[in-house]
Amino acid sequence: MFFGWFRQTEYVDGQLSYKKDAPDLHVIYGYFQVGKILDNPDDVPQWLGEHPHVKPERWERPNIIYLSSPKLGLYPGKLPGTDCLRFSDKLVLTKEGCKRSVWNLPRVLSANSNQLQPQFMER
């Protein structure tokens, strides 16, 4: 899962700017399930030819390329192996009314959860 620090923006007189008094929030914005690990330049598919990690000088030191799985294994056939998520309050990690470093983790991320909840990742 990928998360980042975000703040709401708005256009004011044609300029994009931060919305006044909008909270700073950590939000989950995507996920990526590793499907294949490439650690040998001979295994790199041709369609990745222009990727910066494929350049010969990159293979002179440790280099790994991760490819996503075609489908998310937790829900076979339901979701792609990688995706950016549309904003939803369900994806906000920052606890409401707190500074951005105080998180309210979704149940799906708790150590006691043995199953990922599909509604958490609505598209």
Beta-strand residue percentage:
25-35%
The SSE string, one letter per element, is EEEEEEE
Strands of the widest sheet, in order across it, are 1-4-7
Q: What is the straight-line distance between the termini?
A: 15 Å
| Helical segment count | 0
Total count of domains? 2
Oligomer: single chain
Tell me the helix content. Answer: under 10%
Q: What is the number of beta strands? A: 7
Outline, from the CA principal axes?
extended
Question: Rg from C-alpha positions?
Answer: 19 Å
Main sheet record? 3 strands, antiparallel
Low-confidence stretches: 116-123
Structural class: mainly beta
Q: What's the average pLDDT?
A: 85
Plain-language structure description:
This protein has 123 residues and is mostly beta strands. It folds into two domains: 78 residues, no CATH class; 35 residues, no CATH class. Helices cover 0% and strands 27% of the residues. The strands form three sheets. It has a three-stranded antiparallel sheet with strand order 1-4-7, with no helix packed on it. The radius of gyration is 19 Å and the shape is extended.
